Amino acid sequence: MPVAELLQRHPEIWRGATAHPFLTAVRDGSLPAGAFDTWLVQDARFVADLLRFQARLLARAPRPAQAVLAGGLVALVEELAWFEEQAAARGLDLTAPALPATAAYAELLQRLDAADVPVALTALWTIERTYLDAWTTALPGAPAYREFVEHWTVPGFAGYVAGLEAAADAVGGGRDAVFLDVVAAEVAFWDMALGDGALGDGAVQSA
What we know:
Layout: H1 5-9, H2 11-18, H3 21-28, H4 33-60, H5 63-90, H6 100-112, H7 117-137, H8 146-151, H9 155-170, H10 176-194
């Protein structure tokens, strides 16, 4: 099953991740700066975790998938530098401890190291597609957050997500269970910034 079909198979949970109240508040300007800063610090931690996961996946991925994964790794390194610049400008401490949803997401990525490549690629595509669609929902963003929304909706990012989709499809991705795990983790991550809870444990398995 093509991975894009997962969006149609699970529309309700997909809307929960990509049209979350956090994103609505970014768009209309009602999000408190403190909530955004909490999310930004935790997202920097997540990107570091994702970088490690993706590097390990690159090492075991089939040859046709390696170029898009390698390109994504370079982008993640650059993204971490950008987070450091933003944190310095906003007076944020990127060494702050991981909150429960962030720690749970890191554990999910660690479990995916033991999953087969189609499952892991489906997960990575889901992560990035959620991010792209979520920030597209927030366009154009309130003035206080517009720079961030624009940063995460550039055409090059959409092209990268399309490349991950092709890589996942080529190895027979489209696994429902891991898609649902990742989307639940994404919802928990938005909730975290609003103080509404954290991700519970969930198994990663082939569907």
